[in-house]
């Protein structure tokens, strides 16, 4: 009894610290070993939420054949937010719903980030009104400019101000928030300068909010990516846009044959050249380009012409760098741009 | 005289009944809204809830999409949060209640902790971005997310733990001191065991709030698409355990919901409702656990 007690005391005074020390050593080993262990390769993608569904689909297909060995993460920081990370070299691939801007090219150049630019699909920015709106049958680009330019703020407030034949009722505007690539591209094409827009409209980064708002309001007018219009046809009406050659309604055909112009836009991915040297990223990008046409159609966008995908894959293989969207490229046909020479 | 008294009593009774009705109305209002939320979520999300939904990866096909990575991510982030916020919070509370001298400095600290509990969660996210992600190079990892939510939970845990410690009668401490126990012995053998129930309840309530947090996790870069699970905690080679998962990218349930809600297709909105239902069930389970622990500890301790 006494011995047992003494033994207990010994255990309490020497045994516990020793056990704790051993445990600490073991845990230290675990942490060190985990820090040194090489995990599976990680490919980081970030950027546009518009392009997200296509990238998600491409990743899904690619990973089902490589599960466990290659990990791909996709974030949705928006085109602008994504480019900030991409030009710091933090991400491998950038999803963009508009071409890279001048400032972003400069940022990339400063950090020594060079990139491949690859088109993956078309989107048609769709001008929509509520199904209850009975008077609009088409709208011209000039009228859109008069509605959305910064000087229209607090002055163009009624439908009759756009076209005298339209009723004298309030005009309620809905559009993309200023962080989205949709906003950048729309303002560049319609107003003539990226990010130049009136501010007194209902802005949301969440396109479903815009769908709800426009569908419920007879006096509403807004712009949306085509996929959001297509899935809400019973509540929204697309307004044909007249760019000088007669009104043209957005549809797969008019976008693919180039008549829905200039509000159709290319969706692009940018691949960091240093990342492109890694074989798993090379394989992923090639499989992305190979499947993009089919996947784009599945998730609500328009596929590019087949030869443009071939051209893009060729550019990627031959290591062509830089952007084709130089000065005033918005509105030019994408395929023409990609056939032109590129400069890094 | 008696008439006046009767009138007074009748008036008071009327007011009493009126307040009873008003209280009932307020309660019915709150419960109805909660029930409506539950029913709509249940009706919309219930259809999607299945074993496959819980064990599949996200997908472009709404019917094939699931929440496995988001579930695992949520559980792991909460694990990190619990493991770090409980010892830190309880130790801070014990110090403030038992050791700290009652001075102006402690008063200032106390006020600050109470204030921190009310700071909007996005502020913690920004702070974590400027502390964990870049200077400490923890990246957009499970560890960063867990520590961020720890910041969020700590003030609440400290406040609740202090309340719980304060409910231990001082007679118990004095009795322990009278028997020659040191302060630490008293705390370890008496104060903490008696207040465990209260502390755990508070911890779980703080965690169940943190489970639904989106804003701070967006700022530190939580991802919305991940089709893999973090590294396994057990490995085949020595030392057989691994904490590599701490540094892995992650997705969480609220982010997955947000992603699905912003899709054009109606079917994805159903998925979001399903994920919301799962999140709600998790919160409900956690609150139930808190309730059970409180019940148990109250039954166990008699003084």
Summarize this, please?
The complex is a heterodimer of chains A (344) and B (303). Chain A is of the alpha/beta class and 344 residues long. Chain A is built from 14 helices and 12 strands.
Characterization of this structure:
The complex is a heterodimer of chains A (344) and B (303). Chain A is elongated and about 95 Å long. In chain A, the strands form 2 sheets. In chain A, strands 1, 2, 3, 4, 6, 7, 8, 9 and 12 form a 9-stranded mixed beta sheet that branches. Chain A folds into 2 domains: 41-122 and 265-339, Periplasmic binding protein-like II (D-Maltodextrin-Binding Protein, domain 2); 124-256, D-Maltodextrin-Binding Protein, domain 2 (3-Layer(aba) Sandwich). In chain A, α2 packs across α12 (279-298). The longest helix of chain A has 35 residues, at 2-36. With 344 residues, chain A is an alpha/beta fold. The mean pLDDT of chain A is 84. Chain A is 45% helix and 19% strand. By secondary structure, chain B is mainly alpha-helical. Chain B has one domain (51-300): MetI-like (MetI-like fold). Chain B has 11 helices and 1 strand. In chain B, α7 (170-178) runs antiparallel to α8. Chain B is globular and about 80 Å long.
Task: Describe the secondary structure blueprint for this structure.
The complex is a heterodimer of chains A (344) and B (303).
Chain A lengths: L1 H35 L4 E7 L4 H15 L3 E5 L3 H10 L5 E4 L5 H9 L4 E16 L8 E2 H8 L10 H4 L9 E5 L4 H10 L11 E3 L2 H10 L3 E6 H5 L5 E3 L2 E2 L4 E2 L3 H5 L7 E9 H4 L2 H20 L7 H13 L15 H6 L5
Helix pairs in contact in A: 2-12, 3-4, 12-13
Chain B lengths: L1 H45 L4 H5 L12 H32 L4 H13 L4 H13 L8 H25 L3 H9 L4 H28 L4 H5 L5 E2 L26 H9 L4 H35 L3
Helix pairs in contact in B: 1-11, 3-6, 3-8, 3-10, 4-6, 5-6, 6-8, 7-8, 8-11, 10-11
